[in-house]
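Hi team,

As requested, here is the filled-out complex form for the magnesium ion run. I kept the field names the same as last time so the parser does not choke. Let me know if anything looks off before we queue the next batch.

— J.
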Amino acid sequence: MSASIDAFIFDLDGTVYLGDAALPGAVEGIAELRHYGKRILFVSNKPLEPREAYARKLTRLGIPTSPDDVITSGFVLGYHLAHTEPQLRLYVVGEENLLNELRGHGLIIVPEYAEQDPMQVIMPDGIDAVVVAFDRTLDYRKLNTAYQALIRGARFFATNPDKTCPMPGGAIPDAGATIAALEHMTGRAVELLAGKPSRLMIEVALQRLDVPPQRALLVGDRLETDIFMGQQAGMFTAVTLTGVSKREDIQKMAAPPDFIIESLDELVYLCR
Ligand SMILES: [Mg+2]
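And here is what came back:
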């Protein structure tokens, strides 16, 4: 299979870096793959930062990266809606950077209702779809507006399904927690997820790399998102032990990834 891999898709957190430091072998491994002419794309489920921020961080860590080498769940959602349903008026439970990302794709964002009595049932108008994202500015007003729109038939989209986001010393609530709250309130299920492990994210990734799935390798540290997504798409997969997965978990899997690696500099041996 060696030379048949033309492109590599990398998860970021726990795969390429951890916090603010590149993982051992990442800088050298990615440089070597590029040296052999392999195409590289980085994917993140976090809708908090624009692609430029990831490109700057990777470049600072020694992996020269342009914004076009990165996709986030916010980018994928914006890209998809701009190509399929650009007319939808979106109410976004998300942070300012995500609103800007979606506006950058030419999408229409419904503004917040300025004043809202929490005991009042608001009648949101002009909302065609609710977008739920990782939002550290989440409050009752946003939940109420999203709830009222959803029970009146608005579409139900989300950037990423992660329940929590790992942080130094633990984790904080992520978009999955808000999705679950709204699903519980409305009895509805989210209908479109942009981030891992959705099909949409991998489709956008492969399209940008311009390779068929059987010529691409997905590298990640999470079995249930990264590896599952790559396998569903028919790609080669490699799990790195630098993040959340342990060798014991992998050995228990019915369909294990193609490769288990301890650092990214092992990848070059898989494609020479
Ligand atoms: Mg990860």
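Two things worth flagging: The chain has a mean pLDDT of 93. The longest helix spans residues 73-84.

Thanks,
J.
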